[in-house]
Amino acid sequence: MFGLANPDRFMRFTGPLVPVLWAVAIGLLLWGTALSFSVPEDYQQGDTVRIMFIHVPAAIVGLGAYLALGVSSFFALVFRHPLADAAARAAALPGAALTALALFTGSLWGKPMWGTWWVWDARLTSVLVLFLFYIGYMALRSSIDDEQRASKAAAVLGMVGLINLPIVKFSVDWWNTLHQPASLIRSGGTSVDPAYLPALLAMVFGYGLFFGAIWLTSIRSEVRRRRVLSLKARAAQYA
């Protein structure tokens, strides 16, 4: 893993990997979508249960994406490694998009189930805070012209945001909330109905690999961008 911290090795290793990730991710998403329309209606929720196959994977992977951003920020700040900084930067936009999707689909699901689009519930509020950390990270990077200063400031914010991850995860256990407790990933095994489990797992892994494909593609693009900037800077010195 640490050998891949070298940009040249990283580019060589991920070159053939990225197309495979894209292909497997799209295949899983298509298969999971087909399964989600073939499962029976829930006896209480009816057809609205199908929102689960979008909402739950988006929430899980959105949380994981911020973990990738925060850990990458740590390595970028402590070890000053440009590839770690590129990884943190690349995780921000897809992570924010997934978290926004989780919030949106959660509201769609909450209206028929709870009778309201939004409540200041511990889980909902902590996920909103997670989304704001994503937005703050991207805004901070874009607001500072000096790229090194921007990466350091954003890395600090990215690491601070890690504090919110256990709050998101355990909010349903620590406080009384409208949001149901964990059902897919929990001690004692899943409580998801076996009729829905294959479709849900296919979508979770599909979303995860889809994020991975976007993330690696974005890191590779960032590495190329920085190489071009470096070449331009060297050319300007000799001009």
UniProtKB/TrEMBL annotation:
Main location class: membrane
Give the location in the cell: Cell inner membrane; Membrane
* Superkingdom assignment: Bacteria
Q: What Pfam families is this protein classified in?
A: Cytochrom_C_asm
Keywords attached to this Swiss-Prot or TrEMBL record, sorted alphabetically, are: Cell inner membrane, Cell membrane, Cytochrome c-type biogenesis, Membrane, Transmembrane, Transmembrane helix, Transport
Q: What sequence ranges are listed for the domain Cytochrome c assembly protein?
A: 11-179
Signal sequence range = none
UniProt membrane topology term:
Multi-pass membrane protein
Q: Where are the transmembrane segments?
A: 52-79, 91-110, 122-140, 152-175, 195-217
Function comment: Required for the export of heme to the periplasm for the biogenesis of c-type cytochromes.
> What family does the database annotate?
Belongs to the CcmC/CycZ/HelC family.
The protein's matches in PANTHER family, at most eight in alphabetical order, are given as: CYTOCHROME B_B6 PROTEIN-RELATED, HEME EXPORTER PROTEIN C
Q: What is this protein called?
A: Heme exporter protein C
